[in-house]
Design a protein that fits this description.
Elements lengths: L5 E3 L37 H6 L1 H7 L11 E3 L4 H13 L6 H21 L9 H15 L6 H7 L4 H12 L3 H19 L4 H8 L4 H12 L3 H7 L6 E2 L4 H6 L7 E4 L3 E2 L10 E3 L15 E4 L17 E3 L7 H12 L5 H23 L3 E7 L4 E4 L7 H7 L3 E2 L1 H7 L4 E4 L1 H5 L5 E6 L17 H4 L2 H4 L3 E3 L2 H4 L4 H15 L1
Parallel strand pairs: 3-7, 4-6, 7-8, 9-11, 9-13, 13-14
Antiparallel strand pairs: 1-2, 4-5, 9-10, 10-12
Helix pairs in contact: 3-4, 6-7, 8-9, 14-21
Length: 492
């Protein structure tokens, strides 16, 4: 016999077991005696008959009197075979009826899997099938000690091949995936129980509470304790540039960001919420508006906002703005509002689908472009990325003008000159004005007086639509909903 072998011995057979390696190493094995119990079958119980089908199919060809040769069985992964056997062995002298029942349940589950994997009608699984079996094993036994070497050996792959195939299938390295499963389970326990962090760490497979806390913060962005508190009560949150997401989840921020030139996000309706001017790089909080929790996006360095890490726990959003659904989910996770995410996303997608149908009836292939105009430059936004492209051209199915695709390509935006502006012959043009570079009020609108502007087809036909700067220069779900409202108001 070799490691991992399971032999089914028909009754009456005499066998001698020895190590096939030829060494004198101690051979360790489990021996299980299967005895037949007289059980009166309940013919009315369909579930009972169905559960024994695999057993009968496997045993139907075995001569109980023992004229057949030994049968080798398979169980994978091997570590999941050993664990229940070890538990059965530890409990074999159980006297309490509940413990005896536990032994029977463990054995029956083990034997069911053994028969299923050894079914002669089942083909030898390929690497992909075996890898999926390994992934299922991780989800079932995540709270036990797991190594990449054991996982690879259980499905008969080298460590390198297993790691490569696992990364291709899941996008993660094996141990990163194991830790992600453990940490997702720990989130549930933090929400649903009052267990100590030490106990939760142990329950999900971390032996060290400190290590668990460090990995949890790396994974979730906040500490386990803060995560639990946010799921029990609303936090006083400061989330500059992310107020849209916070408000969409039903949490009212305690402060809202504002900009010296751009103003604040009026479309959010936060008139009673105090403003925080991010352009004042040394601005701080006063005694009445100190936040309990801070959320920052990728622009925090520009405004020196990382200095507030010493004021309150800080969560950094690392998703790209176009992936607003992931930003919403991350925000909901750290604020304890996960239950609201699908409703928010579902409402937006339903709104977008209805708008798309309405626009298709009136647009009939007419082209669209979007410009951001300031005193110093004209910016054309693309059709795949940026604040507006995914909404205009993907969610609503509008047709970008050919120059949008040619000039912007894979970028979010590109600056264009007056010569290029004259080539922008889109049927419809959306514009917004950026006041940041204006030396005096209205300087950003000087382009409208130039002959080049007046010769543009959309201008001549009256199909130019001015929209609010802060509403359209934002990635939030509420912002995107307002964009749809504007588009329908102008075009449908």
């Amino acid at each position: 016999m070799e490691k991992g072998m399971i032999i089914f011995v028909p009754v009456g057979k005499s066998i001698v077991i020895e190590d096939s390696t030829g060494t004198e190493n101690e051979l360790q094995f489990y021996k299980l005696d299967l005895t037949v119990a007289e059980v009166k079958e309940d013919t009315s119980n369909c579930m009972n008959r169905r559960d024994t089908t695999e057993h009968h199919r496997f045993l139907k060809g075995i001569d109980i009197q023992g004229s057949l040769s030994l049968i080798e069985l398979n169980y994978s992964p091997w570590s999941s075979c050993l664990e229940p056997l070890a538990q059965i062995l530890r409990q074999q002298t159980a006297c309490d009826w509940l413990e005896q029942w536990e032994v029977q349940l463990r054995f029956q589950e083990w034997f069911r899997i053994l028969l299923r994997q050894s079914d002669p009608e089942t083909e030898e699984p390929n690497d992909r099938v075996r890898l999926q079996s390994s992934i299922r094993y991780i989800h079932e036994y995540y709270n036990q000690a797991i190594t990449v070497d054991d996982l690879a050996a259980d499905i008969r792959l080298t460590r390198a091949s297993y790691t490569r195939q696992f990364k291709e299938s899941t996008g993660k390295l094996p141990l990163d995936y194991v830790n992600a499963v453990r940490l997702e389970r720990s989130k549930q326990l933090l929400q649903l129980t009052d267990d100590r962090l030490h106990d939760i760490a142990q329950n999900v497979g971390f032996n060290n509470e400190y290590y668990f806390g460090r990995r949890f913060k790396q994974y979730a962005g906040i500490s386990p304790g803060l995560y639990r508190r946010h799921h029990r009560q609303d936090a006083r949150v400061f989330a500059p540039y992310l107020e849209d997401f916070v408000l969409a989840l039903g949490v009212r921020p305690m402060l809202q960001y504002s900009h010296r030139s751009w103003g604040r996000q009026h479309y959010l309706g936060l008139e009673d919420v105090p403003e925080f001017d991010v352009t004042q790089l040394d601005a701080g909080f006063n005694e009445t508006n100190v936040p309990e929790f801070i959320m920052l996006n990728g622009g925090y360095e520009r405004w020196n906002l990382e200095r507030f890490e010493q004021v309150a726990p800080t969560f950094y959003v690392d998703h790209q703005g176009e992936d607003w659904r992931s930003i919403l989910k991350s925000t909901a996770d750290v604020l304890g509002k996960v239950s609201r995410v699908q409703d928010v996303i579902g409402d937006y997608e339903e709104k977008a689908q209805e708008a798309k149908k309405r626009l298709a009836r009136v647009m009939r292939g007419q082209t669209v472009a979007f410009l951001r105009i300031s005193a110093s430059e004209i910016i054309l936004y693309g059709n795949q990325y940026g604040y507006v492209g995914p909404v205009l051209y993907q969610d609503l199915g509008l047709t970008p003008h050919v120059r949008v695709q040619q000039w912007v390509s894979q970028n979010r935006r590109v600056g264009i000159g007056l010569k290029q502006l004259c080539q922008l012959e889109a049927d419809h043009l959306f514009i917004t004005f950026d006041k940041a570079d204006s030396g005096h009020p209205g300087e950003e609108r000087k382009l409208l007086q130039r002959d080049e502007w007046k010769r543009i087809p959309a201008v001549k036909s009256g199909h130019v639509y001015e929209v609010d700067f802060m509403t359209w220069m934002n990635y939030g779900v509420l912002s995107h909903g307002k964009k749809i409202d504007d588009i329908l108001r102008f075009m449908a």
